[in-house]
Design a protein that fits this description.
This protein has 164 residues and is an all-beta fold. The protein contains no helices and 16 strands. The chain has an eight-stranded antiparallel β-barrel.
Length: 164
């Protein structure tokens, strides 16, 4: 699966060949392997090319914020398979699609289609690598569609809910 990335404003692309924990990926034309384990919620232990890293990951309204060895990376991830002709617009406008940040299982659905939500409100919880990630609305609106069901297995980048 190829993903388009914006890392601190720079465009890039990564191809995921195998998911965690025994992750394989192609980045910059080079195939690499890494072992990725969740050390605690929001903290991942990564073994890459014989070096160990702790990656602290948080979800902001527009991107993932990853801190490794004191370096902060703001990463926007886009799955070209999910692109549409309708732009997402600026924050607070248009349609927002919540997608699974990584493969996992939907353990709780907190809202239903048609519900009104506020910015920052929890929409659903996905468990990945023994960590529960609550996905939240980045803006207020109405849940136009809930694609996820409790107990369902989801792939990285899979659309879970749509807010308009």
């Amino acid at each position: 699966m190829k993903l388009q990335l914006t890392i601190n404003g720079a465009e890039d692309e990564i191809e995921i060949l195998a998911p965690a924990p025994a992750c394989r990926f192609r980045w910059g034309g080079v195939e690499r392997a890494a072992n990725v384990e969740m050390a605690e919620p929001g903290v991942y232990s990564v073994l890459l090319e014989g070096r160990s890293y702790d990656a602290r990951v948080e979800r902001s309204a527009r991107a993932l914020v990853v801190v490794i060895d004191g370096y902060r990376f703001e990463i926007e991830v886009r799955d070209p398979r999910r692109w549409s002709r309708k732009g997402r617009g600026r924050a607070g406008e248009g349609v927002e699609t919540l997608v699974a940040p990584m493969p996992g299982k939907v353990v709780r659905v907190l809202v239903a289609a048609g519900d009104m939500v506020e910015a920052g409100q929890g929409i659903l919880v996905v468990e990945a690598m023994k960590m529960q990630n609550e996905l939240k609305a980045s803006r207020a609106g109405r849940v136009a569609a809930m694609h996820a069901r409790e107990g369902a297995t989801v792939a990285a980048g899979e659309a879970l809910a749509t807010i308009e």
